[in-house]
Amino acid sequence: MNYYFGKVAILEMIYIVIHSNQKFKSISLSKRNFVLFFIFIGIQWLEITKYFSILDFKNTSEIFFDLKAIAELLEASFLLDFIGFSLFFIFFIFSISLLLLFLDQEKEKNIYEKEKRINQALSDLAIQETENRYFKEIQYLVHDLKTPLFSISTLIEILELEEKNIRKLNYFKRIEDSLTRCNVMISEILNDSNKNNLFLDNVFNFIFSYLSTHNSINYLKFYNFSPKIKLKINQILFSRAIINLILNSYDAISNKKNGIINVIIKYYFSKILIIIEDNGIGIDQFQLKNIFNRGYSSKNSSGIGLNFVKTVIDEHKGKIFVISQKNKGTKFFVILGKECINYEK
Questions:
Q1: For residues 92 and 19, what is the distance between their CA atoms, to the nearest angstrom?
Q2: Cβ distance 49 to 85 under 8 Å?
Q3: Residue 61 phi, psi (nearest 5)
Q4: What are the pLDDT digits (tens) for 278-332?
Q5: What is the model's pLDDT at position 246?
Q6: 187-196, 229-238, 313-322, 331-340: which range is least confident on average?
Q7: Residue 58: predicted pLDDT
Q8: Does 193-343 carry CATH code 3.50.40.10?
C-alpha cells in the first residue's frame, strides 16, 4: 500500500503539536495515547472526502482512492463526503470530550493534593504553635521556681551555721547538691540553645547522680575509654536524651534476674561513639524502623521518648542507630561528630 503525504497528514501533525502542549502533559501517557488514537481515526476518515484530496486523489491511500473512484462513478460523492465528515466529527468530539474529562480528573487530583499539603502545613503549624506556647509556659513556670529554690538554699546555709551534728550537716550538703543540680537544669532550660564544653566523665556523673534514686542504677556498668574528651553540648537536653535511653533499657530488663545495662564510650576517627546496650527482651524487627517516630510506642506510653532522643541528637549534629534481637537484647549507638568534640591533650 502506498501512502502519499497530504492534507490529512498535515492535520495530524498540527494536532500532535497541540497535543504536546504542557497542559496535556499533566495527563498520564496511556490516557494521552488513548485520546490520540481516536483523534487519528477521526482525521483519517477525512481522506475519503473530496475536500481533502488534490491531484485527482493521488495523495490518498489505494483503498481510499478506489473508494472515491467508485463513488464518482455512482455519483455518490456527496454521500461519501457526508460519511467522512460525520465519522470525523463523531470521533473528534468523542476524543476531545475524553480529553476534557481527563483534564478535569487531573485538575481535581492536583487540587486535592494541594489542599492536602496545605492542611498538613496548617496542622504542622498548629502543632508548632501549641508546642511554642507550652514551652513558653514551661519557661515562665521554671523561672518562677528559682525564687523558692533560692530561699531554700539560703535557709540551708543558715541552718548549717547553727548545726554541729555531722550527720545533719551531711544531709544539708546533699540537699545543697540537689539544689545546685536543679539550678543548673533551670538555667539550661531557660537557655535551651546554650552549649558548654564539658568532660565526658562530668556529663555522665551528672546523669548517674540524676539516676541515683532510680532502680536502674543497680544494673548500670560504665566504661569510658576517652576520659580526656570534652563535649560541646547542652548538658540538660543531652543528659535527658541519654537518661531516656537508659530507662528504655531498664524497662527491657526489669523482669530479668541477670539484667545488665552497659554504657560504653569510645573515640574513633574524630567521632565519639556512645553505646547503651542491654540483655533485655529486645525489639521486634518490624518495630525498629518506627521507634523514633513521634507518637509511636510498643508500650503504653506517649511515644515521645525516643523521638525526643533523636531530636536532641540531631540538634547536636549527631546520629543514632539501633540494633536488636528478640529476647537477646538491644544496642543503641549514638555518634557525635567533630562539631561536638573538644579533644584535651
A1: 13
A2: yes
A3: -70, 165
A4: 999 888 887 888 888 766 555 544 445 688 888 889 888 899 999 998 888 999 9
A5: 93
A6: 187-196
A7: 47
A8: no
- Is pLDDT at 76 greater than 70 in this prediction? no
For the four alpha carbons of 12, 17, 20 and 21, in that order, the dihedral sign comes to: negative
> How many CB atoms are closer than 10 A to CB 333?
15
pLDDT, greater one: 91 or 1: 91
Which residue is it, cell 499533566?
26
Look up the pTM and report it.
0.49
The better pLDDT of the pair 88, 2 is held by 88
pLDDT at position 190: 57
Residue entry with cell 495515547? 33
Helix (H) or strand (E) holding 88: helix 77-162
Q: How far is CA 23 from CA 26, 110, 244, in A?
A: 6, 13, 53
Q: Which of 239, 231, 226 is nearest to 265 (CA)?
A: 226
Contact criterion met (CB below 8 Å) for 189 and 141: no
d(CA 202, CA 182) in angstroms, rounded, equals: 16
Whole-number Cα distances in Å, 274 to 34, 116, 214, 222, 289? 60, 40, 21, 11, 20
Q: Which residue has the higher pLDDT, 82 or 313?
A: 313
- Chain position carrying cell 502506498: 2
CA of residue 171 relative to chain centroid, distance: 49
How many helices and strands, by DSSP H and E, does the chain display?
9, 8
Compute the distance between CA of residue 250 and CA of residue 256 in angstroms, rounded to an integer: 10
Burial class (CB in 10 A: 0-12, 13-18, 19+), 119: exposed
Closest CA to 318 of 228, 246, 242: 242
In the chain, which residues fall in CATH 3.30.565.10?
193-343
